[in-house]
Fold this sequence. Notes:
By secondary structure, the first copy, chain A, is mostly helical. In chain A, 66% of the residues lie in helices and 5% in strands.
Amino acid sequence: MAILGVLAGQDLHGYEIKRRIVDDLNLFASISFGSMYPALARLEKLAFVEVTQGRFNRVQPKSIPFTGSLGGEKAASIDSSLINRFDTTRTRGKKVYAITESGRIHFFYFMNDDFNFGEDDLAFRVRFAFASLIEPEMRLKLLERRRSCLENRLLKVRDSNGRESRLDSYAKSAIEHSQSETQNDISWIDTLIQSERSRINEHTI
Amino acid sequence: MAILGVLAGQDLHGYEIKRRIVDDLNLFASISFGSMYPALARLEKLAFVEVTQGRFNRVQPKSIPFTGSLGGEKAASIDSSLINRFDTTRTRGKKVYAITESGRIHFFYFMNDDFNFGEDDLAFRVRFAFASLIEPEMRLKLLERRRSCLENRLLKVRDSNGRESRLDSYAKSAIEHSQSETQNDISWIDTLIQSERSRINEHTI
DNA sequence: GTCATCATGTAAGCCGTTACATGATTGC
DNA sequence: GCAATCATGTAACGGCTTACATGATGAC
C-alpha cells in the first residue's frame, strides 16, 4: 500500500519508491529489494500499477547500430549485443511505474478501511503519510479511528498494569513507559483532530 | 526468544506462555497458535526446551478402566478409547515445557547479542522484559546499546526532516512526532541507565 | 447439556529476508 | 579504469497468518 501511496503522487521507478518510503517518509527501517521488486510485480499482475517507461519502451526505440562489414568474430559479438537488446532477462535500466485507475480505487479504499488497523501501528503510519491525498472528512475519520484504537490499547495496557503484582520492576517499567507513550500518541492525534476540525469549519463558513 | 525468556523464569505450557507474553508483558499484540506451537516444536527440536509433563507422562499413568464383561458393541467403543489414550495425534492436554541448560545458554547469548537490535524495537523490548534475569553489568550494556541505537535513529529522522522541503505537512508532522517519540524514549533509557549505575555503585561500595 | 474458555495441533499460502547475479551511470 | 552508487531482478528458506480440526474443563 505504501508503494501505491507513493505512486498516487508521482510516477517513479522501484529504487526511488523504496528511497522515498524508507528515507523520506521513514515508514520502514529498510525494505529489501527481494521484497520490493516482487511487490511491484504483484501489483502489476493485479493491474494496480503499470510500466510507463523502461524495459521494452526503453529498448525498442534504439536502432541496431550499423557496423559495416565485419569479420566472423565481430559478427558473433554483434549477435550477443542483439540478445542484450531484446532478451528481457538481460535488459536492465529504470522501469517507471504509474498507478492505474483500479490501483487508485484500491488505494483509497485501503485508506478508509479498517484492514490491519488495530493491531499494527504501521498500518496507521502508512495511511497518515498519505493523508494529504484524501478529503478532509476522510482524514478526520482516519484520525478518530486511530484515536479510538489507541484508547483501547491504553485500556489493555492498564489491564496489564493491574495484573502487575507478579511482574518484576523492569517489566513493570516497560509497561508504564508504553502507557505514557500511548497517552502521548493520543495527545498528538488530538491536536491533529482539532486542527482538522477547525480547517473543515473554516471551509464550511 | 520471548518463549525462552518466559521459560527461564518458570516451567509452563504453551497456552500460558502465550498469555504471559501477550497479556502480561505486552510484547506482541497477539500471537497465533499457528505460530506458537510450531515455535515450541522448533525449540524442542533444537533441544532448547523439553517437555516435563503432559502428553506421554500424563497419559501413561492412567490405568485402562476395568469394564467387566461386554457385548460386541461396547467392546468396540473401548477399543476406540484405547486409541484415544495412546495415539499421539488424539491425546490432548497440557504439555509443560522447561528450558534446558543449552536453551538457557542460548537465551543469555541472545540477551548480550546485537541480533536484530538496530532495526526492530521489538528486539529490545523482548530483551528488556527479561532484564531482571541478567547481571547488572549486562543490563547496563543493554541499555547503553539501546541508547546509541536510538541516537542513530534520531540522526536518521533529522535527516528526513532536513530533506523535508518536498514533504507535505502531514508527512512532516509524522516525522516530527516520531522525532519527539525517539527523544522521549532516550530520556526513559537515560533514567534507567542512571538508576542502574547508582545500583551498581551502591553494591560496589 | 451446552457454552465459553482452555489447550494443542496441522496444512496451505503468502511474503519477507538473505544471498546471489547482472548491468548502467557517475565521479575521481 | 575503477569504485561507488544506481538499478533490477531470482531462488532458497523460513516463518507467520488463516482456516481447519480436535478434545478437555468448568460454570450456569
